[in-house]
Amino acid sequence: MSLLTVGTVAFDDIETPFGRAEKVIGGACTYIAWTASYFTDKIFVVSVVGDDFPQHELDNLTERGVNLDGLEIVQGEKSFFWAGKYHINMNTRDTLDTQLNVLANFNPVVPEAAKNARYVMLGNLTPEIQMGVLDQMTEKPRLVVLDTMNFWMDIAMDSLKKVLKRVDVLTINDEEARQLSGEYSLVKAWQVIRGMGPKYLVIKKGEHGALLFHEEKIFFAPALPLAEVFDPTGAGDTFAGGFIGYLASTDDISFENMKRAIIYGSAMASFCVEKFSLDRLRNLTVPEISDRMSAFVNLVDFKLPR
Ligand code: AMP
Q: Is pLDDT of 90 > 90?
């Protein structure tokens, strides 16, 4: 099934306890598109870069079947830039710099062929742009998933709340769920957030897994314990790409299938963190992904005594 995704396509400077990487490829949309390309081949990207973004990186995405007709290249301007530094536990990070550059004046244009996409992934970027994409859809999508972060809650909470009214699934981390809802308990946070629009809430908790809320139901997916987490950048976007990619490929949005989608998202995120930037996502194989899924199944497989 067709999948439309919007989000940043960016350069990142990353500092972790294991090293530094400067001006590496990043961006929410980049991670989402790469990850979803392992599940479905009808992916449309809507985003913007400057003329500093390497053409071969765009070609790599096209080769994976990702349609870039909705990716604008602005001559004479710079791509979105983000710099972050991870703390020793790798679960928390500080944003050191965010330069919107081309994103500041971006008017998204959804290609004609993508206007009836059944699955829409509103990746992390300006809430107005997320709304602008939804406004251009000619048919109501089967599922709209939105990812965002504290940066947008700090500067654009009103616009974010407007777009949330039109979203089926919201994916945020635990701190962001607390910021959005004003509640510390994540169960109470869900009660507040469901009143804002989303029918499902996924709370990402880094190395502590993810929670899926729907009505009164809660499902928990662990994160795979890894010996080494090299760079967590993009794990949330990779999770979102695996989640919606799997749902689009199966075209089944039942709660049962969403549970599987959460595990696929977690499995893909577990690859992402093994190397800097997108490096681990560039040439995964289907058997590698299947093996990782089995590792997740084994991790939580137990039986009660009779
Ligand atoms: P994640 O680690 O999944 O939260 O995503 C990290 C990616 O998000 C990086 O590659 C950044 O380029 C991108 N990013 C950082 N800040 C923002 C922001 N405010 N809006 C959109 N994308 C961002």
A: no
pLDDT for the residue 41: 92
In this prediction the pTM is 0.97
Mean pLDDT, the chain, rounded, equals 97
pLDDT tens-digit readout, 148-182 = 999 999 999 999 999 999 999 999 999 999 999 99
Using CA atoms, how far apart are residues 57 and 189, in angstroms rounded to an integer? 39
Give the up-direction half-sphere exposure of residue 190: CA atoms within 13 A in the CB hemisphere.
Answer: 18
Angle, helices 28-36/235-250, rounded to nearest 10 degrees: 40
- Site residues for ligand 1, CB cut-off 6 Å: 8, 10, 12, 26-28, 82, 98, 124-125, 149, 151, 233-237
* Amino acid (one-letter) located at 206: G
* pLDDT of res. 18: 86
Tracing tokens 């994540």 back to the chain, one arrives at 186
Alpha helices per DSSP H over 165-285: 174-181, 186-194, 235-250, 255-272
- Residues 254 and 27: their CA atoms lie apart, in Å, by 29
Nearest atom in ligand 1 to 126's CA: 20
Distance CA 173, CA 154 (A): 15
In the reported structure, the alpha carbon of residue 305 is separated from the centroid of ligand 1 by a whole-number distance in angstroms of 45
Residue 213 has pLDDT above 90, yes or no: yes
